[in-house]
């Protein structure tokens, strides 16, 4: 304590109490206010805590230093060092039934009066109290008292000692210490060394000295100016901190010739340094007239192997309050917690938050350490409301052997979870490519295997100028529509789209049946309509409306289709154009777009992005001329490449365009797993195409 600035001490064993000392001693009790209101008379320390004043002791004037007794009984015994060098034992709310009640008021008096600078209780022999005093040319400056010393009448006469104004009380004065050390020098700081109860480290006027009480005539010392605030690291008993002016010195007692580290010099003099009792290697420092506490985190234990050996230090600052800080005290058990007090006795309860280090596990669980706690954050497998990270998806897919079904290649989309329509399109495309080439005789003339792997874009280009349109009758309707004659390449494209099976048969019936079985009523109706079978489309819609999970609105759509007329200015056409904008299902929208469009102008179908690419391409193959089809496929391919849409593999195949598309897909999703398996499935053919 310097001047009248308050100091603060936590009770060693009552972890909810602390004392503030300046001109008097004030005992406070700390309570949590998390689930309760602030009591009348309580002082707010933080958002979660408040302090209540329990007692005040004004019987020890001229206080210069205070030390709390370390043993359990008595709990509130304090030693007070005074300006005249006396050490007084006092209490705050002492237990009068305690066997130690006779200690209260006991005084320990040096031979010559001078200021008492520091006090330190021995952590093992709790009756020993060391006091450090100013210099006197005829006396020692380090006195070790036994607080249980008996009064000796032939040495010390009984005296009357004034304890407070207007009151006198007879007490015992002890003038014979157990040990006297440090003759003709001043002692500014003291601490007992935990590794040996007989060793006392003292910050003398010009040196740090280690006194061994087993041989008081000898001492180990080192000359230094950093003799204030000596304190031992509670987790590494050979590491000591001390300071002078604005500089902190870190010492290793195993190599005591010089400091192992000197911390950054501060612009103002230091007033206090203290090791954190709950955290390894964390040192807090305070400078004069500052609202900042600077922290030094010693990451590695220093070893006295070489002169160049230094611990790694992480330095940072915390600001517990806005006003200047007079003193602070670490809580003895609560992790990284401290109380700070300002010159006007305003107090703050503050926790120093740790830097958080993060770590990812191989199975994408996130873990982090904060102080002594280790936290883990893992995705809940049953929580379908959260979009899983791609790393989690790839791990789950790998566990299901995704990508490894080389026989039924289309099943890989089911192994992937059967949730992504793009993956479904990709694996059905690869399955058809593989199946087509396996069934073909590789040596037969006119083999289309390589062309299949090159995608529909290459298939369409190979047939430019070879197709003419002709008029075809509708099924169930007295109407004709211009469609393109299907040559071999367009049939191959329709097969690749999945509308017709491999062979010479161009019937879409089996495809419609499969869609109906899967409950894709709207898509099946649209495909039937695009194949000029309006009767089948109406039938499918009615079946869908009457099915268990069907939509009754499909009956309304079927009724609208049944009233179709090709008159341009008819009421039906006007009403259907309005209805199309109100429909949510894209396949129902394109059905009316097709029926209300002009011949040869089918943008309402071709550019409906919510309709599957394979259905739009198949539609284009049936209704667009060679030049129109080529332009449309080229434009659609570029869109798929830019978007990284896996449905575009149908167009690009496993050519360079396909690789570019897959690259965009990986950039967008991070799904390197799908890209790798895709290339592995057709690696041999892909390299063959690349060589050509």
From TrEMBL:
Gene Ontology biological process terms in this record: cellular response to amino acid starvation; positive regulation of TORC1 signaling
Spell out the SMART domains in the cross-references: WD40 (SM00320)
Q: Which Gene3D superfamilies match?
A: YVTN repeat-like/Quinoprotein amine dehydrogenase (2.130.10.10)
Q: Superkingdom, according to UniProt?
A: Eukaryota
Task: Tell me which SUPFAM superfamilies the record gives.
Answer: WD40 repeat-like
Question: Is Zinc-finger one of the keywords?
Answer: yes
Show the InterPro entries listed in the entry.
MIOS/Sea4 (IPR037593), MIOS_a-sol (IPR049092), WD40/YVTN_repeat-like_dom_sf (IPR015943), WD40_repeat_dom_sf (IPR036322), WD40_rpt (IPR001680)
Q: How does it assemble?
A: Component of the GATOR2 subcomplex, composed of MIOS, SEC13, SEH1L, WDR24 and WDR59. The GATOR2 complex interacts with CASTOR1 and CASTOR2; the interaction is negatively regulated by arginine. CASTOR1 and CASTOR2 convey leucine availability via direct interaction with MIOS. The GATOR2 complex interacts with SESN1, SESN2 and SESN3; the interaction is negatively regulated by amino acids.
What family classification does the UniProt entry report for this protein?
Answer: Belongs to the WD repeat mio family.
Q: What does this protein do?
A: As a component of the GATOR2 complex, functions as an activator of the amino acid-sensing branch of the mTORC1 signaling pathway. The GATOR2 complex indirectly activates mTORC1 through the inhibition of the GATOR1 subcomplex. GATOR2 probably acts as an E3 ubiquitin-protein ligase toward GATOR1. In the presence of abundant amino acids, the GATOR2 complex mediates ubiquitination of the NPRL2 core component of the GATOR1 complex, leading to GATOR1 inactivation. In the absence of amino acids, GATOR2 is inhibited, activating the GATOR1 complex.
Protein name as catalogued: GATOR2 complex protein MIOS
Tell me what organism the protein belongs to.
Lynx pardinus
